[in-house]
Amino acid sequence: MNDIRRTILWVIFGFSLVMLWDQWQVYNGRKATFFPSSTPAVVQTQDPTAGASVPGSLPSSVPVASSSVAGADQIAGAVPALAAPVAAPAAGQELVQVETDVFKLTFSTEGGSLVKAELLKHADMADKSRNFVLFNNSMDRVYLAHSGLIASAGGPALPTHKTIMTLAPGERRLPEGSQSLELRFESPEVGGVQLVKTYTLTRGSYVVAVKHEVVNVGAAAVAPQLYLQLVRDGNKPPGESSFYFTFTGPAVYTEAQKYQKVDFSDIEKGKVDIEKTAQNGYVAMVQHYFASAWLLADGIQRDLFARKVDTNLYSVGMIAPLESIAPGARKTIATTLYAGPQEEKILEALAPGLELVKDYGWLTILAKPLYWLLDKLHSFINNWGWSIVALVLLLKAAFYWLNAKAYSSMAKMKAVNPRIMEMRERLKDNPQQMQQEMMRIYREEKVNPMGGCFPIMIQIPVFIALYWVLLASVEMRNAPWLGWIHDLSSPDPLYILPIVMALTTILQTSLNPAPPDPMQAKLMWFMPLAFSVMFFFFPAGLVLYWITNNVLSIAQQWVINTRMGVPPKFHLPKF
Q: What's the pLDDT at 112?
């Protein structure tokens, strides 16, 4: 039993060192060795003077949409490439700013595209006086939403996101008392087709309804295809921590394959493995706390793609073939663009599976009910910090008897520890007899050496799931707790919580029975201290969660030890 316990401790210790080494590699600009992130290790800022060339005309021949992998890739390649970001508008292009109660959006008449999105309810992490910017097109950041038309096989060029459009007159700011605001972009006739895009912005919502009207103004029937894509550079969002990993990159959801994340590095290597065709789902671009997504109604056939557009520039999108449109007729297709925070309830109501952009990983089945409970607590308490404390209290109450069993086993171990230490010293030259004698003492005292481990191991997935809930929840962003803690998603500016965390960790470790093996005893002290140092760089909400858990564990352990007649005693490490 002692060997098993020793093995478990060494496995945990080794895994911790591996993770620390990987994060140190990433922090110093090198590629992670064991757990590579989704962002290329070396990223390049696109040079506006040497970017991708914009084709003078769109392809005259485009492959027909195909359900095969090759067909889907070919049609994705038919979507016009993005020009390099520019400091000033291109010739003929105008930028139009629109504002609602939650958005300040910038549209370009080039393609009627959304090129900048400021979220008025969310502050920038680096500069709290500025609004958080999601979409952008600048020298440092490229993140855009495009849509347009491509022709079927043998068809002419059609209006795309590179076509200069005309913006119809109308309101540019959501009027008081009004619930919605519309922007209408009209393309010129290209290939006998006119494309009209109508954006509808709604008060209090990050959901943008985008209506595409395809008008056949030519003399022959046309069967165009509508493409929707999100384009983004491969850089990590500014302000991201190097001490924990959150996913940044494209994602695709279909009913058949569910949620699929795509690493930028896989796109770079041409190893994209996603569902290629579907009649449901969405495409998204995901980062910590925020996401954007294009959605089509279920039942509409679409080809899905993720591709490299240029150096350190990637896109994810879908292409939907439209029915043949007779001369003089028009076809309207409704789409939805989401650009905002990963608020779980809003995403769930918008589309099946969209809430999965808030990524809890393999512990989603545990994390979702934990978030639900945390949200319910917040509806009563109205403070996310105290809601975290309340949730940990409820979890400790739910696991009270498991913890009681673990701490009882530890108390028994602590009671027999003097006998074990004396016996080890007496039989140190006879390991086999030492092991037999140790097992005899455990049997006589009815002590299970692993009795303190198994109850705690059962709880580990729950507390890891809660860790991811707190790390992924945008509600923690800029949420105050009390006093000096003004943002639960940022590290404690005064380092008070990490210091308290370290002290409670030391106190809890000192209450546990010292392992008989000197190496195990040193390891038992080293690991908590190492994790305490890491918590100096963790969000305050996560540190608050661990402190609460530590304090409650110490209190329960103290009470159980006292009831069992084993007075709590502190032992210090011997190095």
A: 95
CA distance 287 to 309: 19
**Residues contacting residue 177 through CB under 8 Å, at least 6 positions apart:** none
pLDDT at 41 exceeding the cut of 50: no
Find all residues with CB under 8 Å of 330, minimum gap 6, and list them: 213, 214, 215, 216
pLDDT greater than 70 at residue 185:
yes
Q: Which of 231, 234, 229, 228 is nearest to 247 (CA)?
A: 234
Residue 111 — left, alpha, or beta (φ > 0 → left; ψ -120 to 50 → alpha)? Answer: left
Q: Which two tokens stand for residue 365?
A: 């089945």
Cβ atoms 110, 164 nearer than 8 A: yes
Would you say the C-alpha torsion 334, 335, 341, 342 has a positive or negative sign? positive
Contact present, 522 and 575 (Cβ < 8 Å): yes
Burial class from Cβ neighbours inside 10 Å (0-12, 13-18, 19+) for residue 206 reads: buried
Give the C-alpha separation, 307 to 313, whole Å.
Answer: 9
pLDDT (mean) for 258-265: 94
- Site of tokens 């490229």: 142
Q: Distance between CA 350 and CA 562 in Å, rounded?
A: 54
State the pLDDT at residue 407: 63
| Cα(553)–Cα(449) distance, integer angstroms | 20
Question: Looking at residue 67, what is its pLDDT?
Answer: 34
Q: How far is CA 199 from CA 4, 129, 152, 179, 180, in A?
A: 63, 29, 26, 14, 10
What single DSSP character describes residue 146?
E
Residue 201 pLDDT grade (very low, low, confident, very high; cuts 50, 70, 90): very high
> Which residues does 191 contact at the CB level (< 8 Å), separation at least 6?
151, 155, 156, 157, 158, 218, 222
Of 294-298, 422-426, 452-456, give the lowest mean pLDDT range. Answer: 452-456
